[in-house]
Amino acid sequence: MTQSQSGMMPALTQQMQDCIDACMDCHNICEEAMSSCMQQGGQAQMQIMRALMDCSETTRMCADMMMRRSPMAGEMCAVCARACDMCAEACMSMPDDEMMMRCAEACRRCAETCRAMAGASM
After folding, report:
1. Would you say which domain of life the source belongs to (predicted)?
2. Is 51 domain-assigned?
C-alpha cells in the first residue's frame, strides 16, 4: 500500500469513487433481487440466484479492495465486471420483472465502471 509523505493514503480519484459507488449500488440491488427471487420460488430461479450471489459478493469485495488500495484491485475489477455481465444477462431472462430489470441496469453500469478501472492504474 503506497502512502504519501504524511503517512496518509492518497485521496480516491473521482473514477475510483464512481466505481466504488456503482459497486455498492449493484451489491444492494442484487441483495434486494435475491430477496425477491426467494419470495417467488421456483427451480428456474436457481441459476439467477447463483448469478445474483456471485455478483453481490464480488461487487462488495471489489469496493472494499479499491477503498483500501489493494494492489489486486485492478484484477478484482476485471473479475467484478465479468460477474456483473453474467448477472445482468441472468436478470434479463425475466424481462417482465421490474426488480430484475433494475438489477440488470445496475449490473451493466457497474460492469462498465469496473472495466474502466481494470484498465486504469490505481
Report:
1. Bacteria
2. yes
Q: What is the dihedral angle through the alpha carbons of 23, 104, 89, 108, rounded to the nearest 10 degrees?
A: -50
Largest Cα–Cα separation, the chain:
56
Query: Whole-angstrom Cα distance, residue 20 to residue 7?
Result: 23
Q: Is the dihedral of CA 52, 112, 92, 99 positive or negative?
A: positive
Which cell numbers hold the place of 19? 466505481
Residue 15's identity, in one-letter code, is Q
Within a domain: residue 6?
Answer: no
The pLDDT, as a whole number, for residue 3 is: 43
The model's pTM is 0.86
pLDDT per residue over 21-80, tens digit each?
999 999 999 999 999 888 877 655 788 999 999 999 999 999 999 999 999 999 999 999
Whether 121 shows a pLDDT value over 90: the answer reads: no
Distance separating alpha carbons of residues 68 and 40, to the nearest angstrom: 37
| Dist CA 7 CA 67 (whole Å) | 16
SS3 78: helix
